[in-house]
Design a protein that fits this description.
Elements: E1 2-3, E2 11-16, H1 22-36, E3 40-45, E4 59-67, E5 70-71, H2 73-81, H3 83-86, E6 90-97, H4 106-112, H5 118-125, E7 129-134, E8 136-137, H6 144-152, E9 158-159, H7 163-176
Parallel strand pairs: 2-3, 2-4, 4-6, 6-7
Antiparallel strand pairs: 1-3, 4-5, 8-9
Helix pairs in contact: 1-7
This protein binds flavin mononucleotide (FMN).
């Protein structure tokens, strides 16, 4: 768990799963932006062992990589396990996939289609908003069969994250939260 310097803002949880680190870094970036705006942010990886209780927070942001067109099980399980607390909180969900890495026409199709379990997750927690971000994918992350399929879809390995989009989303979340005294930048 990572915590931010306390501002006078609301307590916010950024919970994420990450197989290879790119969702973690997006979660940390969002947390950093919210902390900069004065909120008291805690960042947790949900790996099934340390279950941060969402009931302790005003707002909860949950992110997952997309594997085989779905959220990874530990992230989806976290949402379902904490359904009762989450439905009474402000919740934002984000997914990290590889749509930007694909060639045409797969790219257009991937951008249009959200992860298959997202409609179900939306029913469970009624999020303020859900968002998809491009992530990073390396050849070593895929099985030999996965590499063949990825290549057939015109896929390009690499880091496709768009930090401006991540920052813009974090700023939109900040605008949706009660105003906080902004933290002074370190001298
Ligand atoms: C086994 C595997 C399956 C994947 N399946 C999908 C998928 O169905 N759709 C998608 O958009 N991205 C898929 N991806 C891409 C990942 O979601 C993307 O690389 C993401 O950045 C991974 O996040 P992470 O680094 O936090 O694990 C897959 C990646 C792996 C390794």
């Amino acid at each position: 768990m990572a915590g931010s310097e306390a501002g006078d803002g609301v307590p916010v949880l950024v919970a994420y799963a990450s197989a290879h680190g790119s969702t973690r870094e997006i979660a940390e970036r969002i947390a950093e932006r919210l902390a900069r705006a004065g909120h008291r942010v805690e960042t947790y990886e949900v790996d099934g062992t340390v279950p941060p209780d969402p009931g302790r927070y005003h707002a909860v942001i949950i992110g997952s990589p997309v594997h085989d067109m779905r959220w990874v099980p530990e992230a989806a399980a976290y949402v379902h396990r904490h359904q009762a607390a989450l439905e009474r909180r402000r919740v934002w969900l984000f997914s990290v996939g590889m749509s930007e890495a694909l060639g045409r026409p797969f790219h257009a199709r991937a951008v249009r289609h959200e992860p298959r379990d997202l409609p179900g997750l939306r029913e469970v927690v009624h999020p303020e908003e859900t968002r998809q971000f491009p992530g990073a994918l390396r050849r070593r992350h895929l099985t030999p069969l996965g590499r063949v399929i990825f290549r057939a879809m015109g896929g390009r390995y690499g880091d496709h994250r768009d930090w401006d989009r991540v920052d813009a989303w974090a700023e939109a979340i900040v605008r949706g939260l009660p105003r906080a005294e902004r933290r002074r930048p370190p001298v």
